[in-house]
Amino acid sequence: MVYAIIIGALTAYLLGNLNGSVCISALVAGDDVRKHGSGNAGLTNFFRSYGGASTFLVMLVDIAKTALACLSCGLIMESFGYGYEGMMLGAVAVSLGHDFPALLGFKGGKGILCGFTAALVLDWRIALAILAVFVIAFAITRYVSLGSVLGATVYAVGFGLLHYDNLFVMIGGIFLGLLAIWMHRSNIARLCKGTESKVHLIHRELNK
């Protein structure tokens, strides 16, 4: 089973290295999204830098790789009776691969879309709660980072409350929530200082 865990985790981590923002900026614009804006290889920086329909391609890549990582790792562990735990292992590994991709110099995104997709695969109730909190926070404030941090908090609390009977899944979910919050530490600092940038979806499209 040890080999299965290593293979599943490594596969998921390498899938995480397939960063949607970096791949699509290279394919569509012949550019590197990390050279623009905040320098982050995440969805928000991609949208601010390029906008347009290509943003949906970024989303598709990150959603697909996360779902594949969770399901493939779960399938590998299923034969040992740990399919659900395997999906959480895949979720943690793919998120680490997205945030800290070895193939991209450990400079990745912040893992919000990956984390949400993993939650959707693992527990749709938590995923819907995360989405609701994010949408409400963003609609009121126009701060993607604030919605992301609040959603990550719901992530950690949700898995802590709803999966206390499965220690590995509970710890994995809490870890992913806390990881997302930590990845937004610079955004939190800017929010506290009042210097964080807002995102206006309609304006971005009109100004293209």
Please render the helix and strand layout as text.
Layout (H helix, E strand, L loop, with lengths): L1 H15 L3 H10 L13 H7 L4 H25 L4 H17 L12 H11 L1 H18 L2 H19 L4 H17 L1 H9 L7 H6 L2
Molecular structure report:
The chain has 208 residues and is an all-alpha fold. The protein has one domain. Helix content is 74%, strand content 0%. It is built from 11 helices and no strands. The radius of gyration is 17 Å and the shape is globular. The termini are far apart.
Offer a concise description of the structure.
It contains 11 helices and no strands.
List keywords for this structure.
208 residues, mainly alpha, disordered C terminus
Distinct helical segment count: 11
Please identify the oligomeric state: single chain
Instruction: Determine the strand fraction and express it as a percent band.
Output: under 5%
Instruction: Using the alpha-carbon principal axes, give the shape.
Output: globular
What is the CA-based Rg, rounded?
Answer: 17 Å
End-to-end C-alpha gap:
52 Å
Structural class: mainly alpha
Low-confidence stretches: 203-208
Tell me the major beta sheet.
none
Order of helices and strands: HHHHHHHHHHH
The domain tally reads 1
